[in-house]
């Protein structure tokens, strides 16, 4: 029997316009939010101080999940399907937005649309893939969007 190793997509396997759905989702806990927020030295009381947050208008007195946790998790949910072992580098993010907040107990689902791809002009055997990551909560509301450029390996079997 053949060995099958889980991996992301080679450059050639990405399809422009394709939407990749990443499952399962991830339910955020209070612990996730507090640990991430304190590890990253973000002392914003909107994430850490339940009493202070309860007195603030706008979000029903609830603490908000750190938006950087949301972005990181949206990208993380895509790794097994898209970039596991095939990415060379993360080139950068553009157009990052958080249209709606996440709260403790919400479940985050991710999807990615391949916006474009092209072979690298300076790095043979590699290509640049532009990905739009979208995070939705359990109600289908968009809570995060980001466009990311990645440098991805071409299929080594397809090279001469």
TrEMBL record:
All copies of domain MaoC-like, residue ranges: 17-133
Top-level taxon in the UniProt lineage: Bacteria
InterPro entries in UniProt: HotDog_dom_sf, MaoC-like_dom, MCH/BMMD
Annotated signal peptide: none
Pfam family of the protein (one): MaoC_dehydratas
Family: Belongs to the enoyl-CoA hydratase/isomerase family.
Name of the protein: Bifunctional protein PaaZ
């Amino acid at each position: 029997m053949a060995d099958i190793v889980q991996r992301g997509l080679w450059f050639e396997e990405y399809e422009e316009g394709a939407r990749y759905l990443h499952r399962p989702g991830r339910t955020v806990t209070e612990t996730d939010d507090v640990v991430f927020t304190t590890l990253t030295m973000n002392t914003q009381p909107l994430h850490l101080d339940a009493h202070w947050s309860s007195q603030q208008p706008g979000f029903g007195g609830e603490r908000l999940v750190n938006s950087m946790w949301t972005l990181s998790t949206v990208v993380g949910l895509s790794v097994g399907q898209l970039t596991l072992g095939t990415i060379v580098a993360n080139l950068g993010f553009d157009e990052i937005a958080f249209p709606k907040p996440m709260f403790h107990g919400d479940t985050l689902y991710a999807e990615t649309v391949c916006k474009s791809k092209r072979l690298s002009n300076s790095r043979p055997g590699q290509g640049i893939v532009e990905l739009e990551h979208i995070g939705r909560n359990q109600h289908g509301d968009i809570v995060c969007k980001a466009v990311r450029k990645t440098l991805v390996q071409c299929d080594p079997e397809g090279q001469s």
